[in-house]
Amino acid sequence: MQSKRTTVYTRSELSKLLDPASIAVIGASTRAGSFGERVLHNLRHYGGRYYPVNARYQTIGELTCYPNVRDLPEAVDCAVITAAREAVEEIVLDCVKAGVGGAIIFASGYSETGREDRIAQQDRLAAIARESGIRIVGPNCIGVVNATLDSRITFMDITPIPRPVPHAVGIISQSGALGMALAQGVVRGLSVSHVLTSGNSCDVDMADYVNYLVDDPTCASIACVFEGMSTPRRLLLAAENAWRADKPLVIFKMATGEQGAQAAMSHTGSLAGSHETYRAAFRKVGAVVVDDFESLMETAAFFAKAPAPKAAGAAIVAASGGAAIMAADRAEQNGVPMPQPSDAVRVILESRIPEFGSSRNPCDVTAQVLSDPEALGVCAGALLSDPRYGVLVSPMTYGYAPSAKRPQVYNELAKQHGKMACVVWQTEWQEGPGVVEANQCERVALFRSMNACFAALASWQWRADKRAAGAQTMTPTQAATITQAKHLIAAASGATVTEREAKEILSLYGVPVVGEQLTQTADEAVAAASKLGFPVVMKVESPDLPHKTEAGVIRLNLRSEADVRTAYAAVMANAAKVSPPPRINGVLVQPMVPQGVELVIGARNDPLFGPLIVVGLGGILVELLKDSALSPAPVTALEARGMLLRLKGYKLLEGFRGMAAVDVDKLAEIISRVSRFAADHTDQIAELDINPLICGGDQITAVDALIVPMRK
Q: Are strands 610-617 and 444-447 parallel, antiparallel or unpaired?
C-alpha cells in the first residue's frame, strides 16, 4: 500500500492542467447531449487551441478529429476524457505516452460505489499519476473553469462567466454541482476567476487547488466547499500558504455530524468532535469558516474587496428604524462593537435627520430620505469620516429605482476614507435594483443576511488581529525534559499512567500540581494528612481505575484523623468490590485545594490532525455544559488566551460573586505548556486529561490527571 501524500502540488505543477494553452477532448462526439458534444460546445469561446479526439470521426464541424491523443499535432497541456469508465485507464496511459500535462476524468462508478474492484480501478489511476507525473482531476467530477481563458472544461450547460475583475473570487468545491451553482452569482454582479471541482480526487484534490489559487493573480479570495479528506493536514499546509500570501480563504464545511468522533476513556474524546476539530484547525491557520452555504460567496466577495480594517467599530445607517434595530442586534450577537459617533459627526447627523429619527449609532434617517435624497449620503460620509468606524453597514429594505444609486454613493465614500461599506439586502425582491450595482462596486459588499454580514465583519477583525499579532514563537522544550518524560511514560505498566505518575510527568513541563503522598496503611495516611495539613483528599491509586469517582474510591474534605481512618477503610473496601480486582499501589493523600473556577485541559492524538488540545469549563460538568475550545497543538500562550476567550463561561475567570479573578496570563501559559507536552509526545500519548484544574486568583493547580499511553 502506498503512503499518503504529505505535500501539495505547486502552481507550476498544475499550470498545464488548469491554465492550458491547448486541450484535447477525448471522446468528442456529434451526438446531442453526450459529454463529448457538450464539452466541445463549451469550448467554442476558449482562447487556446483545442482538438477533438475520436476514431469514429475524421472531422467534427470545421475541426479535424484525430483517432488517438498520440496522433495530435502537439503534446497538449490538458486532456478531458469523456469516455466510459471501462476505457478510461487505457486512455490515460495513451495520454502519458503522448506527453499530456494533465487529464480531467468525468466517468463515475469508481471508489464512490464502495466496490473493491472499482476502488482498485481508481487506485490504478492514482498510481499512473504518481509514477508518470501526469496530473489527474477526478474521476467522477464535472470539470473546471478558468474565466481568464474562458475555458469551460465541463459537460454542464453552465452560465457564461465574464472575465474576472480585480476583486474576483476563486471557487473550489468537492461537489461539482455546488461549485457551478456558486459561479452563477455572476448574474447578480459577483466576479469569479475559477471554478475548480475535484470529484473523487484520485490525484489532484482540494489542498492542491487552494495552493494553486494562492499564487493566482486573478483571484483576490478563495471560496471553498469542503466535505472532508483523508489527509486534512495537507489542506492546512495550503491554508498556511494562503495566510502567508495574505489571500483570504473562506470555507464552508459540510458533513458536520459528530459520528466520526470516537469514544475515549477521558473527557477529551467526547469534546473533540470531527467538525469542531476541522473548525479549530482552520482557525489556527487563519481560514475563515462560515456556517451556511448561502453566506459563502458573499463572505468571500467581501474579503476580496475589503482592505485591512482601520477600526473595529461598525456604523449603521438606515432609512428604517426596524432594520437599524435588527442590525444592532446582529452586531451585538457577533461581537462587533458599535461605538457612538463623535460630537462633530453628531452635529452633521442632527442637521439632516428629523427629530423622530436617531442621530445615534445605529443611525435612522427615517423615510424622510424620500424628500431629502441626499441625507443618506451625507450621514454615511460623516460616519465614515469618524475614526471610530472601520465599516459602514446600510440595510436596504426596499427595492426601487433609488436603490441602484446608493451603492455607488457608498462606494465613493468608502474609497475616499479607505474603508469598507456593506449593503444588507432585506427585500424579497432578491434581484431588484441595486443588487448588481452593489456587487460590482470596488468597496461595497452585498449580503442577503444581516447575520452573515456581521459574522463576516467579526471574522474580518479577527483576521486582522491575528495578522497584527504576527508569528508567535514558542520556547522549545529542553531535550532532557523530553527524554525524562518519555522514560516515565514508557515505564508505566497499566492501560493508563496513574494520577501520581501523570502529575509527575506534567510537572516536568512546569505545570503546577497538587502536593501528595502515597500511603500503604491507615496510619501512614494519618501521618501524611498531618504533614500536608487538613483538610485533605484521599484517593486509591490504581492503573486499572482511571475514573475514580465512579468506582467510589475518592473522599474529599477530610478534617480530622478520625475522618482519614474512616475514609481509608471505605475507599479500600470499594476498590475491593471492583471486578476484575484492580492492582492497587496504595492510597494518595493530598491537601484539599480551595474552591475556585474548575477547568479541564485535555489532549488527544487525532489520526487525521495529530495532537489536539481542548480547554473546557465545568470540571465534572464539562460534558454536560459543552463549553470547550479546541486547537491543534502546540499553542502559544496568546493562542491559549484566545481559546479561553471563546468559552461561553469566560466571565467566570474575570471574577464572579466575590470570587477572585483568575490570572488569565498564567492560565494561558499553563495551557501552552500542556500543549507542548502533547505535541512532544505524539508517538507515546493517545490521550491526556487534567480534570480539574482549579483556578483561584493566581493559584492554579492541577488536582487530578490521566495519561493514556499509545499502546502498539
A: unpaired
Q: State the pairing for strand pair 536-541/517-519.
A: unpaired
pLDDT at position 48 is: 95
Find the DSSP H helices in 223-317: 232-244, 267-271, 274-284, 296-305
Confidence band for 263, pLDDT divided at 50, 70 and 90: very low
Report whether 82 contacts 35 (CB < 8 A): yes
Q: Extract the runs of DSSP E, i.e. beta strands, from 43-178.
A: 49-53, 59-60, 63-64, 78-81, 102-105, 135-137, 143-146, 151-154, 169-173
Per-residue cell: 618: 465545568
pLDDT above 50 for 662: yes
Strands 536-541 and 135-137: unpaired
Contact 363, 317 (CB under 8 A): yes
- Please name which of 285, 268, 172 lies closest in space to residue 229, comparing C-alpha atoms: 172
Integer angstrom CA distances of residue 399 from 71, 430, 435? 58, 9, 9
Instruction: Find the helix or strand (DSSP H, E) in which 675 lies.
Output: helix 664-680
What is the dotted CATH code of the domain comprising 11-300? Answer: 3.40.50.720
Q: Where are the alpha helices (DSSP H) in 19-145?
A: 35-42, 85-97, 116-132
- The label of the residue with cell 489542506 reads 235
Evaluate if residue 706 carries a pLDDT over 50.
yes
Report the distance separating Cα 79 and Cα 476, nearest Å: 49
307-469: CATH, from 3.40.50.261, 3.40.30.10, 3.40.190.290, 3.90.550.10 = 3.40.50.261
Per-residue pLDDT, 604? 93
C-alpha cell at 57: 470521426
Alpha carbons 662 and 697: distance in angstroms, whole number: 4
How high is the mean pLDDT of the chain? 92
The Cα 195–Cα 647 span in angstroms is 37
pLDDT for residue 475:
83
Location of C-alpha cell 436603490: 403
Quickly state the pLDDT bin for 364 (edges 50, 70, 90): confident
Query: Is residue 517 helix, strand or coil?
Result: strand
- Asked whether the predicted pLDDT for residue 526 surpasses 50, the reply is yes
Residue among 540, 563, 546, 518 at smallest CA distance from 706: 546
Terminal Cα-to-Cα distance of the chain (whole angstroms): 20
Q: What are phi and psi of 84, to 5 degrees?
A: -70, 160
Give the residue among 126, 95, 128, 91 at the shortest CA–CA distance from 16: 95
Give yes or no on whether 11-300 and 307-469 have one common fold: yes
For 523, residues 6+ apart whose C-beta sits below 8 A from its C-beta are none
Sign of CA dihedral 411, 417, 422, 423: negative
Domain residue spans of the chain: 11-300, 307-469, 472-514+594-712, 516-592
Q: What is the Cα–Cα distance from 40 to 42, expressed in whole angstroms?
A: 5
Per-residue pLDDT, averaged over 97-122, amounts to: 95
For 691, phi then psi, to 5°, come to: -155, 110
Return all residues near 12 (Cβ < 8 A) that are at least 6 apart: none
pLDDT at 388 over 70: yes
Q: Which fold has domain 472-514+594-712?
A: D-amino Acid Aminotransferase; Chain A, domain 1 (3.30.470)
**pLDDT given for residue 549 in this prediction:** 84
Task: Output the pLDDT for position 274.
Answer: 77
> What would the DSSP string read from start to end of 365-397?
--GGGGT-TTHHHHHHHHHHHSTTEEEEEEEE-
Q: CA angle at residue 467 from 461 to 472, to 5 degrees?
A: 130
Task: Answer whether CATH 3.30.1490.20 is correct for domain 516-592.
Answer: yes
The distance of Cα 427 from the centroid of its chain, to the nearest Å, equals: 31
Instruction: Give Cα separations from 581 to 531, 547, 623 (angstroms).
Output: 31, 15, 29
Angle at the Cα of 482 from the Cα atoms of 478 and 488, rounded to 5 degrees = 145
